[in-house]
Amino acid sequence: MLTAKSLSGELVQTPVDILASAQTRGSPRIAGHPDLCSFEATVKAAALAYAAAGVTARDIDVVELHDCFSIAEIIDSEDLGLMSRGAGGAWAAEGRTGMGGDVVINPSGGLLSKGHPVGATGVGQIYEIVRQLRGDHPSQVQGARLGMTHNLGGTGVACTVTILGRSA
Amino acid sequence: MRVPVDIEMARCVACGHVDAITCVLCAKCLGTEMAAHAVPGRGRLATWTTIRRPPTRFCELAPYYVCVVDLDSGPRVTGRIDTLAGAKSGAPVMAVPCESGIRLFTLA
C-alpha cells in the first residue's frame, strides 16, 4: 500500500518511508558509453537519490541492485559508490557484499536467481527491501534501517534508484 | 593493400555532430535534419565477446563474435569481427563487405 506519511500509521503497522526516488537516462547503445565499465545513468541517479534522501552510500545497509549479468553487479555496485572504483569484484569475492558484510547486496539472490521477469523485477526489488526494513524477511539483514533499489533498463538507457528507510 | 569499406552514419546538417546510427534527431543539438554521412571503416578494436547462444535468426552463425570499435574518425561503433585470432584491445581493424548488411570487421 502506497500512502501519505500522515496516514501510514493508522493503515500499516510497520510503515516504510520512501526517502528518495530518482530516474535518469543514458545512451541506448553500448557504443554510446565512453567507459565500458560504468553506466552514466546509474552514477547520476545515485547522486540524485543520495542528495534527496540526505544520506551517503556508506549509510546504506542493504541493496537490491540490477545484476542482470554477473559483471553487472560489480559495475552497478561501483557506480552506486558502495565501494571505490575497481574494488567491486574483490568485495564480492571476499564476502564484503554478503550477509554480515560491509553492505549486503542482493540477499534475495538478485535478478539472475529470479529469472529477471522484466517489469516485475523492479517491483520485486521494492518488495524485498520493504520486508528487510520491516524486519520480517526470511533472509533478514540484521538491523537494516536504510535500503536501496537500483533498476537499469536496456543497455543503460534508463535507471531508477530508490532509497527506503524504516520509519522512526 | 586492402581498402576498408565505408561505414554509413548520420551527420547533423545544423551542428555537424556525427552519430553512429541513422537517426532523425541530432542527439547534440536536437536538429531535425540528419544527412547520410560515410566514414572510412578503419579503427581500433576496443573489446569483443563471443555469442554462443544467439537469438533464433542468428542460430546458424553461432558461435560468432561481437565487437566494439573506436573508429579513427572518432565515433565508437559496434559490429562483428570475423575471427578472434590475434585479437587484442587496441588492435587495428578495418570494415569489410558483408552480404547481410551487418557491420563486419577484420584485423587489419
SSE order and pairing:
The complex is a heterodimer of chains A (168) and B (108).
Chain A: H1 5-11, E1 16-25, H2 40-53, E2 62-64, H3 70-79, H4 88-93, E3 104-105, H5 110-114, H6 120-134, E4 146-153, E5 158-166
Parallel strand pairs in A: 2-3, 2-4
Antiparallel strand pairs in A: 1-5, 4-5
Chain B: E1 6-12, E2 18-19, E3 34-40, E4 42-51, E5 64-71, E6 76-81, E7 92-96, E8 104-107
What is the chain-wise order of helices and strands of chain A? HEHEHHEHHEE
CATH topology of chain A: Peroxisomal Thiolase, Chain A, domain 1
Low-confidence stretches of chain B: none
Task: For the largest sheet of chain A, list the strands in their spatial order.
Answer: 1-5-4-2-3
* Percent helix of chain A: 25-40%
Number-wise, the strands of chain B total: 8
The number of distinct structural domains of chain B comes to 1
Tell me the overall shape of chain A.
globular
| Helix percentage of chain B | under 10%
Class based on secondary structure composition and strand pairing of chain A: alpha/beta
Distance between the termini of chain A: 18 Å
Strand order within the widest beta sheet of chain B? 4-5-6-8-7
Question: Mind summarizing the main beta sheet of chain B?
Answer: 5 strands, mixed, barrel
Order of helices and strands of chain B: EEEEEEEE
CATH topology of chain B: OB fold (Dihydrolipoamide Acetyltransferase, E2P)
Radius of gyration of chain B: 15 Å
